[in-house]
Amino acid sequence: MYSDTLKIELQDQILLIGLNRPEKRNALNDEAILALEQVFDQMPPGIKCAIIYGEGKHFSSGLDLSSIKERNAAQGVYHSRMWHRVMDKVQFGPVPVIAAIHGACVGGGLELASACHIRVADASTFYALPEGQRGIFVGGGAAVRVPKLIGMARMTDMMLTGRVYPAEEGYQIGLSQYLVDEGMGLDKSMELAQKICSNVGMTNFALVQVLPRIVEAGHDNGLMMEALMASIAQDAPEAKQRLVDFLEGRAKKVGE
């Protein structure tokens, strides 16, 4: 049984995870974050992809400031590390995760979206990191993940000046990989999830678990990890059958 801060729905091999606090613009409190952890710790068998979306008019307006408790520095570190633990379970969990973004994708909402593997934004989306104007600093992983998407200079600008990126600009700088018409984000995410579900499981595992570590590794270690993962993936029976299907003309070519 999950917290009512989330709405959970299963569609074939796809798990839909709805942030379910629309009256609070899906602001994230500890209950919602820990509920997300429970979902990724207890992923039902047979799931091959997950989609995180927001109920109502927004994906997420970030940390629920009304839930902030007075903490000393050590308590603040432990709280931030709790968020880190959960975001790592999204990024390095059992399945690829798509964020279907609309409306506000702000602060902690952007931290959650950046932990996902694919981000689909609709035309209503806007991005911001207002922590700089609130007298605080990001604490849910943005300082690590967001610069990898858009560069340190752009993130610094967002926090120093309160800059807000609308959907089109966010797409251009890399905050999303897809941009669709307003109201179409979940449909596009479902389309992509179905493609992901059709992949060989070992390939999806490599992309979720191994590729990020290759990118972080040094040159030689990265190449060795790539070689090992390539050899493991191509040894899977399903991969061998797909290669035979391609060579014998039973599989579509790129662009068809």
Would you give an account of this structure?
With 256 residues, this protein is α/β, with parallel strands linked by helices. 49% of the residues lie in helices and 15% in strands. The strands form 2 sheets. Strands 1-2-3-4-6-9 form a 6-stranded mixed β-sheet, sandwiched between helices. α1 runs parallel beside α2.
Q: How helix-rich are the residues, as a percent range?
A: 40-55%
Number of helices: 11
Query: What is the subunit organization of this protein?
Result: single chain
Radius of gyration, in angstroms, nearest whole number: 19 Å
Give me the secondary-structure category. Answer: alpha/beta
CATH class of the largest domain: Alpha Beta
Strand content: 15-25%
Mean pLDDT: 93
By DSSP, the count of extended strands is: 9
Instruction: Please write the string of helix (H) and strand (E) elements.
Output: EEHEHEEHEEHHHEHEHHHH
